[in-house]
Amino acid sequence: MVDKSEIIINFVNQQSLTMNRRAMNSEAMNGREGNIFGRRLRQARLMKGVSMDELGKLVTPSISRQAINKYEKGETNPDSRMLIAFCKALGVKPDYFFRPFSVTVDKIMFQKSSRISEKRLVAIRERVREELERYLEIEQLCGSECSFRLK
Hints:
Elements: E1 8-11, E2 17-19, H1 20-29, H2 36-48, H3 52-58, H4 65-73, H5 80-90, E3 103-105, E4 108-111, H6 118-142
Antiparallel strand pairs: 1-4, 2-3
Helix pairs in contact: 2-4, 2-6, 3-4
């Protein structure tokens, strides 16, 4: 867990967040809607802070970095056995990999301590995206949307 005094997360502008329809339309225009699994696999791997090689060793049976790269690029899809192995290794539920992206965060700025590695910063960025996506999804389901303004 990151100490709040080490990192302050600032959202740069109100346009940084785009919800549901606009994000999904953007994915469709860029041809990425078919690779939700690959993008989620990459996000989960980065949140966990592991490389492709390390993830390959965490899953049972172990697989190569090249195989993980193919999954992330959408060149191949896992069978149910590999899906469960990824879930266990990354600490996520199977439905996580198939949930569409509903939030786009353009920039996340950190006021950081020099002790934090680049790998840890990437993990924090991905975790912020995931948590924000969940928060906005709950807000939308409850019908209570709030807008935030920077002063």
